[in-house]
Amino acid sequence: MSHWFHRNPLKATGDVKFEMKMVASDSQALKICSDLKQARKRLLELLPDANHEISVVEPALMLYLAVLRGLIHPPEEEGTSWSKLRHAVRFKWTNSMLGNTPETHYDAVFELVCVLQNAGFWYFKHATKVAAQENVNMEEAKEVHRSLRRGAGLLQCAHNDWVQHLLEQPLPGSDADPRVYTAYLNQATAEAQEVTIARAVELKHNAGLISALSHETSKMFTTAADSLASLDQKIFAHWMNYLKLKAAFYMSYAHNYSGENLLNQDKCGDGIRALQEAKKSYEAANAMCKEYSGTKGPGTKAKPDRHLFFRRIAPIISRTLEKCERENGMIYHQKVPYDAPELEIRATYGLASPEEYCLPPSAPLWSSTTYAAFDLTKNMSEDKAANSKAAQKVEGDLPTVKEAAIHQKDGEHKNDSGCSIM
């Protein structure tokens, strides 16, 4: 679905030479330095282009992570938790929402966290690319779903397994900030469920199931939006408004299909009230679309209100509400309650979750002999002034990542759901 998803910028990074000192010239150790540099360069060449296939990006990611792990964990025979080389190389990375000023750390764990995050962002953007095609078949819809779950899994791995080992507390608004992480994780998971909902609508599944799935999806978007509320709104309001409009939109879906389900059970009065609530939520989503498009901030400009999937629900709500009111006046004569019927929270089938991500083992080159060839004392003799905050400020900002364009068409899809992802 073109222009359906909001996406934030990729993280930028500086070049790394991996010039680590050695006790003696060791061919394997020299090869490790070369492999680190080349594998990193190759991965960074791929990530700005979401048009690449997963089969191209994933091996490049695995290769670099396998070599990088040797800077984090030593060979098993060493008997220590952290490699002596963990703090031997300086890494610079920006954050997706905080502009071009980088964080700089002598820490391979910091590098690992940033690489996992940026790879996760690539998967989100790749899902956008696949969804934006004119005709998306079943396998491609599965790829969208899988990409969103894999991206969420990469972020989850970084946050749950590695952020706690960083040398400093995450900066407010950084990608390692728990609030930003929560927003990304819930957004990706909710977007994966959007694929399931569109498929359920297309296949005319039980209205109660669609309502429950939509309700869960709305709650995830709400959780994502709420997690950003305490951050600088000059930066985060644009993204937060996207999450709010999606939450309102799926709440309208939830109440609409709840109303249909109640009508099928001859609970016409309750059905009328549910559909009234659906109309109210849809109007709120429409208002949020205008607020989102008028708010400045990092990231793309999604256009959900232009989509048939977005627009189709309004006449459905109106028609079903008119039918309920007509039948209630002629047949049921049921009282319309003041409060909307509670939405069911029984959805288990179709709920998405992050795909668990496990790091590859260290590259075979990282043997005890190779590890011993690196001399930490020589490496630490570098001018420590280079790591001072003043020195970092003099170095200046990093250029924005030039991301390849994703071609997005505005054509409508002639199916029941109005969605290209089925």
UniProtKB/TrEMBL annotation:
InterPro entries: BRO1_dom, BRO1_sf, BROX. Pfam families: BRO1. Residues 1-422 form the BRO1 domain. Belongs to the BROX family. PANTHER family: BRO1 DOMAIN-CONTAINING PROTEIN BROX. This is BRO1 domain-containing protein BROX-like. It comes from Hirondellea gigas.
